[in-house]
Amino acid sequence: MPELPDVEVFKRYIDATSLKKKIVRVEVPDSKVLVDCSAGELADAVRDNSLLGTRRWGKHLFAELDSGNWLALHFRMTSYPRYFKMPEGDEEDSRDARYDAVRFFFDNDYAFAFNSRRKLGRIQVIDDPDRFAEEHDLGPDALSLSEDQFAELAAGSRAGVKSMLMNQKLLSGIGNEYSDEILFQAKLHPEKKTNRLHEAGHRKLYRIMNEVLEEAINAKVDPEKMPDHFLTPNRQEGKPCPRCGSALEKITAAGRSAYICPSCQPEP
Ligand SMILES: [Zn+2]
């Protein structure tokens, strides 16, 4: 499931490849990903437009069109963006082409595809990302939050700390994997009550959250490029804790499978 760092990497990829190019044609091999619009309506909304820039809010990505409208992209599960030259010759790329849900063709013989292998990604045309966030009850983006704002949110939460981090209404962008990483780095058990951490604990958690998200983005979310002290590359039951060597455990927390080190993250 793409989380904030994954979507930030997608954002940078789109920024580097697909901005300021005129869209001349649209293909929709799979209209299941479209929300509130038909393939024809999507084509009408984007044809003769270019993508001016992008904005990320949690796990959502928005691309602004010349018209002033925005494409809202939600990558969910295995979706990702790919930019390629037409016709496709490269084997690596064309193997995935059958999972393209929408393709936008530019006037330079290149195309941008929203690829969605499990058909769970979503595309929508909207007029305002701020209103979209409000309608979807999205809390502030986890990387845009100040330390004071975070401390205030955390002080008001009686939930377990994993559940709090993953609550998109409180803060947007963190899911199952990165909440595990943040809690591992903070040496906190996922079920520890958030408001029991007190202010110093909340401020420390904020700084670790930022470090983890930034490090993951720097590593382009490739586990092999993540720091040695990260849980993510070792996120498997029985593997040694990268800090103390104890066997990692899989538990259920916040209704999800969570990976913890039972020595570093003792039960509250
Ligand atoms: Zn450990």
Structural notes for this entry:
The chain is α+β, with helices and mostly antiparallel strands. The protein folds into two domains: 4-135, Alpha-Beta Barrel (N-terminal domain of MutM-like DNA repair proteins), CATH 3.20.190.10; 147-260, Helicase, Ruva Protein, domain 3 (Orthogonal Bundle), CATH 1.10.8. The chain has helices spanning 4-17, 39-46, 91-96, 129-135, 147-155, 161-166, 176-185, 198-218; strands spanning 23-27, 51-57, 60-65, 70-74, 80-85, 100-106, 110-115, 122-126, 249-253, 256-260. The strands form three sheets. It has a four-stranded antiparallel β-sheet, covered by helices on one side. A four-stranded antiparallel β-sheet has the order 2-3-4-8, with helices on both faces. Helix 5 crosses helix 8 (198-218). The structure holds zinc ion. Zinc ion binds at residues 241, 243-244, 246, 261, 263-264. The site of zinc ion has 7 residues, from loops.
